[in-house]
Amino acid sequence: MVFDIRIDNGIIITVNPAFEIIQNGWIGISADRITALGSMAQTRQPQAGEVIDAEGCILLPGLINAHTHLPMSLFRGLSDDLPLIHWLEDHIFPAESAFITPETVRPSTLLSCAEMLLSGTTTCCDGYFLESDVARAVRDCGMRAVLGQGVIDHPAPGVLDPSKNIETAQAFLTECISLSSRIRPSLFCPSPYTCSEETLIRTKAMCRETGVRFQIHVAETKWEYDHMMETKGATPIGYLDRLGLLDPDTMLVHAIWVDADDIERIVRSGASVVHAAQSAMKLASGIAPIQRYIELGIPTALGTDGSASNNTLDMFREMDITAKLHKIANQDPTVLNSRIVIEMATIGAARAIGLDREIGSIEVGKKADIIILNAARPHLRPLYHPASHIVYAARGADVRDTMVDGKWLVRNGTCKALDLCAVQTKVRRIADEIR
Question: What's 2-62+360-414's CATH class?
């Protein structure tokens, strides 16, 4: 056998079911798949067209950001330190109305993709508007993604007439399917209180008919919880359950304000939860019962949320904060250990977005989505426990190389996937207009 690429001498955190760590290992890649791996000392390495030396490096499956709003990199730092409702209604919604267009969506999406690739994220799950334009930008830079067209009962970018929200969503699903094998379509409802009962039911029905994921922000704030109890006579999760929207293809983003009955509803339905710790902390939304979700076997993933509320897309930063937040919230330093948090950013996230048979771990037969970290930096020495380092010491800037589908999109810290200078120039011009 001759591989296209062989990566030698790295510490491999496989994230396989046993969470095996190979201290001095190699990976063989043919086309877009991992076709072999093992220990340098115990197995013979076949020839390869390209051999990469990863000595002094840690290898991981590409990280998966399970909740993003890619074009919102345009609003990074535009408005901070506000409650969610005021932040949205007084700042973000007006900015979106004025500045989110097909012309601005492409460069802002590419900027987000570059940030993710350079910091080791190879797949994301997005939910936003003008998602066809988002999809074309993601396709062109080579990332893998599940992309959700927003469906809402208010005027939104690309859907100024809310009565056309379902029609627009149908058109997106049709177009997106043929764009790239790396891109899967999805539909996204921003919240239970911005969508009518009819819109929620029709959107979920469309997801079921086409076999795609249904994403929704839900139970994010105390205000939402109280509002839904007052107007619907149910908790936000209880309301979705009453409408028949909960099943294994539903992704519940945030799920912070829940009671015991809500948790039982999630368990029974098989729905997944996406946790965006830093965004929730910054907006003072609350702390989701993530430890309880994990104990009950609820598929639980990590996401950053958008750059306007995080304000970065660095999943290493997200892992670190998530682990520490829940230790203090539970008054228990043993909860959400490094293995669990890495799984939430890899195989757990892959499971939530429906791609765990393809990505999320370094195993023979899976897609060659791999990142290489330079572990020879001062803040990563000495190295006793690689998984601990990934969560508590590593940073996105430590990523040396990023591979998606067997192709190098970042090499030696340089983004090869797109012209980053040109993208940044375009974004800077748009930011000047916003300013």
Answer: mainly beta
